[in-house]
Amino acid sequence: MKGKLTLSKTDLQDVVDALRKGISDYETQCEDRYKHVFVGADVTDVRVYHNMTAFLVYMMDNTLIELEKEHLMELISYHCNGDLTSLDFQNLHYILSMKGQKTYIDFCNYYNRYNERRSMSDIFDIMLTPLLKKGVIIEGGATSKNKEFPTFSDGRNHTFSLNKDFFNPDDPKIKHLVLK
Is residue 153 one of the residues assigned to a domain? Predict the structure, then answer.
């Protein structure tokens, strides 16, 4: 069985139970190219034949993405002369995990999803303002919505991006992250 990993039935019992319980959660969270890992025939393949190849490929790809995030955070820390706090690293991880266009409100919602709820003004003042002052993130233009947000500096929601002076976007070690 070249190219396939086989394990004993007792070693796989926890994995199979997790797959049975969380199959719908995994389906909704996975990218389209990984959906085949957690549906129908492949679950049977894991249960009956103890074939873990598809699952391990999925896990290794996600690990690679996390390692790229860590590499990027270390590059940014190096260019900031080590002035980043643990809270700054946490916020950088959140920013790198966000998909699509990054705005202040999107960051606040993302932060509240994984932490104790705070107001937008607290999140902006405590989390984003230090990164703006250190030059790690650069404020972009205002969003097209006309709604006023008194918590932000000029009352408008703005986009932001990572400062490209701190890292090379064409670095060969960063292949899977989308840095807009």
Answer: yes
151, two tokens: 């918590």
What CATH number does residue 103 fall under? Answer: 1.10.10.10
d(CA 31, CA 132): 32
pTM of the complete model: 0.67
pLDDT digits (tens, 9 = 90+) for 5-37: 555 555 555 665 655 555 444 444 444 445 555
Instruction: Quote the domain boundaries for residue 126.
Output: 83-166
End-to-end alpha carbon distance in the chain: 42
Q: Are 137 and 167 in contact (CB under 8 A)?
A: no
Q: What is the distance between the alpha carbons of residues 161 and 59, in angstroms, rounded to a whole number?
A: 28
The more confident residue out of 47 and 98 is 98
| Cα–Cα dist 108/121, whole Å | 9
DSSP 80-111: TTT---HHHHHHHHHHHH--SS-BHHHHHHHH
Q: What is the dihedral of CA 128, 132, 138, 144, to 10 degrees?
A: 50
- What is the count of structural domains for the chain? 1
Query: pLDDT tens digits, residue range 114-125?
Result: 889 998 888 888
